[in-house]
Write a structure and sequence with these properties.
The chain has 428 residues and is mainly α. It is built from 13 helices and 3 strands.
């Protein structure tokens, strides 16, 4: 272990946890250095052991090559040519497979933790593959070539040293995995922080935008309030009041029309069906809606109808429940010219309404008011959208904060496993 790492792990500020275990305090900026130095320490401690394994392997590989070379020169002593050819082909296959294992073992390895682990795993995998593939060939040639038995014996010795080294390799592979995971966690931490800062910046922009929208909305509301107090609105309210008064008068006229015609409904039906077939559609309208019929009755045909009906009631042609009452009402309508008066008042009301509506249109208030209300509604919708976006962004930031805590905790756990001491990181 280098002096730098020793100083960081054993001479740097330390504390004690509740279990009295030593805690190493590290700055975040020191994590990669610690990881690299620990990797170097592990490599320096492990390299001599692996080189010893490798030397033993080289010796056995040399022995294996010697026996392979001897076997290549031997021919099976078999008289039957067919059997001899069969044994010879299996010998060739067996030798090819063993040579392929030798080639794997003789490949150079990178002098690093990863390089050693990769070399070992490839070698062990190759041994298992050849062990399976060469078994059939060996069973066929073992009684013919004693060299085959020697080759398999050396091959098994190689397995023993491979197996013996497996625990060390597994330990190293675990350490490499932890170091790689720490690197990945640091990348994740950087990504989280970067995205968190971007979201915070975005959040501030949205908050600023929300303030602007709220200010605009307040300004529009003030404009609406000022508009409500304006001379134009005062004039509009006055005109609206007059308009409502005229509309009320129209309702009174409609009521008067009903009061005059409704009591004569029975008589009008009889008269229309029997004595005034051509005029019956008009009579029917008066029965159903007296005021609407009067408005449409430009020539006041109702007066002629009532006069004819009066004569028929008088001579008894049309019977009524109360003859005097019906005749009195008809005489009143005709003598006082009530239907004409109602119609004239209606026409006057229409003229007045036209003038009032013309004055209202000249004020152009509806358009201006709609524009202000439209702006207000738009700003309210925009405000709601921004507020939802703000809440969504806050939620994302909270998620990243929680994820950051998890990643930081993972880094401390893996560092503790790597240096075999409890580590506490002071994050920036």
């Amino acid at each position: 272990m280098t002096f730098w790492l020793i100083r960081k792990l054993f001479r740097k500020e330390k504390t004690q946890d509740k279990s009295n275990a030593e805690i190493v305090i590290l700055k975040e900026s020191e994590i990669n250095k610690i990881r690299e130095e620990e990797g170097m320490r592990i490599f320096e401690n492990f390299l001599p052991k692996f080189e010893n394994f490798y030397q033993n392997l080289v010796t056995l590989i040399d022995d294996l090559e010697i026996e392979i070379e001897k076997m290549e020169k031997k021919e099976p002593k078999i008289s039957d040519e067919k059997i001899k050819s069969f044994v010879e082909s299996n010998k060739v296959e067996f030798i090819q497979k063993m040579k392929s294992f030798v080639e794997e073992a003789q490949k150079p390895y990178e002098k690093s933790l990863k390089g050693i682990v990769v070399y070992y795993n490839n070698l062990a995998s190759k041994w298992n593959k050849i062990n399976i593939e060469a078994t059939r060939n060996y069973k066929i040639i073992k009684d013919v070539f004693k060299e085959a038995r020697k080759i398999v014996s050396i091959f098994k010795k190689i397995y023993k040293i491979i197996e013996k080294e497996s625990a060390n390799i597994k330990l190293i592979a675990d350490k490499i995995s932890k170091m790689d995971e720490i690197s990945k966690n640091l990348e994740d931490l950087e990504w989280i922080r970067k995205n968190k800062e971007q979201l915070k910046h975005y959040l501030e922009e949205k908050k600023s935008l929300l303030r602007n929208v709220e200010n605009e909305k307040r300004e529009i509301i003030k404009q609406i309030e000022d508009f409500e107090l304006s001379e134009e609105m005062k004039k509009l309210r006055e005109l609206t009041k007059i308009k409502n008064s005229i509309e009320y008068k129209e309702k009174e006229l409609a009521s008067q029309s009903v009061q005059l015609i409704s009591p004569l409904t029975r008589e009008l039906k009889k008269f229309g069906k029997i004595f005034a077939e051509k005029e019956y559609p008009l009579i029917r309208k008066y029965i159903d809606s007296p005021f609407d019929a009067l408005i449409e009755d430009e020539e006041l045909k109702i007066n002629r109808i009532l006069m004819k009906m009066k004569r028929l009631i008088e001579d008894g042609t049309i019977e009524t429940k109360n003859k005097e009452k019906s005749l009195s009402l008809i005489e009143k309508i005709l003598n006082d010219n009530l239907m004409k008066k109602i119609k004239e008042k209606h026409i006057a009301n229409l003229e007045n309404l036209k003038e009032i509506e013309k004055e209202i249109r000249k004020l152009n208030i509806d358009k201006r008011k709609r524009e202000l209300e439209s702006q207000k509604n738009y700003l309210e919708r925009r405000k709601d959208e921004i507020e939802k976006d703000i809440e969504k962004t806050k939620s994302k930031i909270d998620e990243l904060v929680e994820l950051e805590k998890i990643v930081k905790n993972e880094i401390e756990k893996k560092l503790s496993t790597l240096v075999e001491k409890k580590v506490k990181v002071l994050y920036i």
